[in-house]
Write a structure and sequence with these properties.
10 helices, globular, Aminopeptidase, Arc Repressor Mutant, subunit A, alpha+beta
């Protein structure tokens, strides 16, 4: 049997054995779709209908039906968007928050009962395999259509995930001490991310120090590199810095970042220096050049 057939068969059987199509999915007292939506709203707060449609991969008719059902239970509220009265925003209510928190607890107990039948090594292998396959599926989808990628300022509820990703890249891959990853809060740093659903797949930051704008902490999840995510973050964040008044931005760039920023008209302003075993080159990006690219 081919590997793709094996995976399809296992997915089909997992759905059956876990009862994922039942109305009481994983003993959560929610359907899989309801839990999917409530978890997203719990993480992201008030969310446009179209964002749910795009990020959760549910067709419009089904999503409307599920949302109406949740609204009838007083789990959510749908109201006209403040920014566009033609659109609706979806917000989780107190009963909905209670339902998803309780559902998560029961679902965790259900899964844990299964994992206890195996060893810790087996549990770790299962977690790793599931995550790896999901990321491969995500990358495949983004290669075909990257419209789900949202570049935005990082909200407080995603800051921990952003620092975690930056630490994985700078500390685990580049041997930079983890204590150097966060930016001093006294500098009032701004952080941006590339987000797909609940996944943070790229980050960067900017701060002003001694009257000079700096840009750094630029990191992309290694599993989704090579498909333009980094370029999107760079373009968006640099544009925002210039929009708030910067005329030029100072950057200490590794070679791969330097090559990307050269396409945006950066100027090398010094010799490359060693930084924890890798070379970094001081450069500046000028507003007058960037805006014409």
């Amino acid at each position: 049997m081919k590997k793709e057939e094996v995976i399809r068969k296992e997915l089909r059987l997992i759905i059956r054995e876990l009862g994922l199509l039942n109305h009481n999915c994983l003993n959560s007292e929610l359907t899989l779709a309801q839990a999917h939506i409530l978890n997203y709203l719990k993480q992201n707060g008030s969310t446009p209908f179209n964002e749910l449609l795009m990020q959760l991969g549910i067709d419009k008719a089904s999503l409307s039906r599920i949302l109406n059902n949740l609204e009838n239970k007083n789990y959510i509220e749908m109201k006209k968007s403040q920014s566009d009265k033609r659109m609706k925003d979806v917000e989780i209510l107190h009963l909905g928050m209670e339902a998803i928190i309780d559902g998560d607890i029961k679902a965790n107990e259900y899964i844990n009962d299964i994992l206890l039948l195996g060893s810790n090594e087996e549990a770790n292998n299962i977690m790793k395999a599931f995550k790896n396959f999901r990321i491969l599926a995500l990358k495949n989808n983004l290669i075909k259509n990257d419209s789900r990628v949202t570049i935005e300022r990082i909200e407080a509820n995603y800051m921990e995930d952003a620092i975690k990703l930056a630490t994985e890249v700078f500390t685990d891959e580049q041997n930079i001490p983890s204590e150097l990853v966060p930016v001093n809060e006294e500098l009032k740093p701004m952080w941006w991310c590339a987000r797909v659903g609940e996944d943070i797949i790229g980050v960067t930051a900017a701060w002003k120090e001694k009257n000079k704008w700096h840009w750094g902490r630029f990191a992309v999840d290694k599993r989704v590199r090579g498909i333009g995510i980094g370029n999107k973050i760079a373009m968006f964040s640099l544009q925002e810095i210039f929009n708030i008044g910067a005329d030029e931005i100072f950057i200490e760039a590794r070679d791969i970042t330097l090559r990307m920023l050269e396409k945006l008209g950066c100027e090398v302003v010094g010799e490359a220096d060693d930084f924890y075993g890798d070379s970094v080159t001081p450069i500046i990006v000028k507003k007058c050049i960037f805006m014409n690219k």
